[in-house]
Amino acid sequence: AATVIAVANQKGGVGKTTTTVSIGAALAERGLRVLVADLDPQGNASTGLDIRVGDGEPSMVDVIVDGTPAADAIRATAIEHLDVLPASLELASAEVELVSAMARERALVNGLAGVRDRYQVVLVDCPPSLGLLTINAFVAADQLLVPVQCEYYALEGLTGLLRTIGLVEKNLNPGLAIGGVALTMFDSRTRLAQQVVDDVRGYFAGRAFETVIPRTVRLSEAPSFAQPITVFDPESRGADAYRSLADELLTRLGLA
Amino acid sequence: AATVIAVANQKGGVGKTTTTVSIGAALAERGLRVLVADLDPQGNASTGLDIRVGDGEPSMVDVIVDGTPAADAIRATAIEHLDVLPASLELASAEVELVSAMARERALVNGLAGVRDRYQVVLVDCPPSLGLLTINAFVAADQLLVPVQCEYYALEGLTGLLRTIGLVEKNLNPGLAIGGVALTMFDSRTRLAQQVVDDVRGYFAGRAFETVIPRTVRLSEAPSFAQPITVFDPESRGADAYRSLADELLTRLGLA
Ligand SMILES: Nc1ncnc2c1ncn2[C@@H]1O[C@H](COP(=O)(O)OP(=O)(O)OP(=O)(O)O)[C@@H](O)[C@H]1O
Ligand SMILES: Nc1ncnc2c1ncn2[C@@H]1O[C@H](COP(=O)(O)OP(=O)(O)OP(=O)(O)O)[C@@H](O)[C@H]1O
Ligand SMILES: [Mg+2]
Ligand SMILES: [Mg+2]
Fold this sequence. Notes:
In chain A, helix 10 (191-204) links the parallel strand 7 and strand 8 (208-214). The first copy, chain A, has helices at residues 16-29, 44-48, 60-66, 70-73, 94-98, 107-112, 132-140, 152-156, 158-171, 191-204, 217-221, 229-232, 237-253, and strands spanning 3-7, 34-38, 75-76, 82-85, 121-125, 143-149, 178-186, 208-214. Chain A is an alpha/beta fold. The two termini of chain A are 16 Å apart. One adenosine-5'-triphosphate sits between chains B (12-18, 40, 44, 128, 184-185, 213, 215-216, 219-220, 223) and A (11-13, 128, 151, 153).
């Protein structure tokens, strides 16, 4: 059955969606069957893969609040081997609706149970918060992939994230751990970027990936064409970097 | 009494904190008495102004959950006329604690009531979500300032934000409206940035500010020195842009 990886960091705008979509596409290119599960009400991972949820169409909120089978909500993308369980704005109300639900932290793991054997990797794109949606991702996950932007505020947010991971590991999902820390949006014009890379490598040691994702114009433009970078500009620095990151992930998962 | 402005956008990393801190410092430079109220558990606005909350020290979570007087939690900053009501990580638990509290959406407006007459402007830095903390900011606010990053995903998020503003305006705070939309992180290397500016100006018409904030290295470096840009590099493009934005805001508030 699939390895479930939650792509999470409550700091906003650090590249969670871009990393989910780009790694997902790179793994699919290597022939792995991949599901991107969009757990962010903004639905950026869905639209970044050209999937839009119309009125009345099943999506993530139905799966985790009403128990709709995930298979009914999953869509194929234009990319072979890559499917999406899309999100819509209605997902924003799920946090409030789940608060008093039974087993509220297990809504996602239960929702995905029926489809895990169809994929080798499931990537869950998390919203920028440590609320009930992200907790659901942590309970469903075998491991976490944490994107860290090469900027100052990104370092500050790690304390809160590590604290929450510890609580979930102790009470809801024993064995949950950070599988990898990915450095994103590296801008060689600032000294600060290299300082953040050094700090993160010092703090996380071997868990930080070797590959550092550069800040590039093409990566910021890809979402407006609703394509991942590997399709939008396959020869670009951004595509190469995310393929390299995907290969590192495959090695760590023992799927290389 | 002070005009309360909530700086909000649930899309992450669009420049909410940078805009709150920079405009706050620019207004204080002009001699206005300003309070920055940090409503984000990440506490970036607090640390961006060199304020850290130690164990047991009062902060935003005490004001909105326990009713601690705001005056007890407010700190002076190194900048004359600029104070901060700081946030700490504990604020993350406030959302869950407030869910069943009486008048849960009015915790902030009640908390600020005792200090509004000491300031001319209160800027509330919101977290990247539309949960109970941001709703509290919308209830306390006279108007909203919405930073929009000049990137594709930033446009997509506006639908959800406008929907939430409408709900709060109808049910909790009649008259709430977007006072201004600020375009941030404009990178002249991408065609997309100008397209976003044009789209936002078309959609929001006169509510979009004239000033466009450029993406600059110095703005990204200022937080690591715990200083707003007007202090960190007073002659920089970033400082000039935020002073110009602050002046536009003053004109709209009738305080110029
Ligand atoms: N390496 C990169 N180079 C240039 N732009 C990038 C890069 N990675 C991401 N971006 C852009 O930066 C913005 C933030 O990235 P993204 O939306 O992936 O972050 P996020 O962590 O998912 O944000 P949120 O917290 O809102 O979910 C987007 O506009 C995206 O297109
Ligand atoms: N104009 C700019 N030029 C360069 N860097 C910027 C600019 N504005 C903000 N930044 C940097 O971009 C990152 C995101 O900005 P910021 O933290 O202010 O956004 P935010 O909307 O408050 O994020 P969050 O959603 O996590 O609260 C920060 O590292 C900040 O230093
Ligand atoms: Mg995202
Ligand atoms: Mg912020």
